[in-house]
């Protein structure tokens, strides 16, 4: 396992703190973090004017 640098840890922690809904994917090659992908989902509640089709 390679060394994990503080900037990598700080970036992962900051991303997790800012994320309400979504995912964080950490890509590792040869025991080293090479990429961090974030997918954020936005949730919107339906308004009373919208009705579902029956």
TrEMBL record:
InterPro entries given in the database record: DUF2292 (IPR018743)
UniProt protein name: DUF2292 domain-containing protein
Organism ancestry: Bacteria, Bacillati, Bacillota, Bacilli, Bacillales
């Amino acid at each position: 396992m390679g060394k994990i640098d503080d900037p990598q840890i700080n970036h992962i922690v900051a991303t997790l703190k800012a994320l309400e809904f979504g995912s964080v994917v950490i890509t590792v090659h040869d025991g080293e973090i090479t990429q961090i992908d974030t997918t954020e989902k936005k949730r919107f509640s339906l308004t009373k004017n919208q009705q579902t089709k029956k």
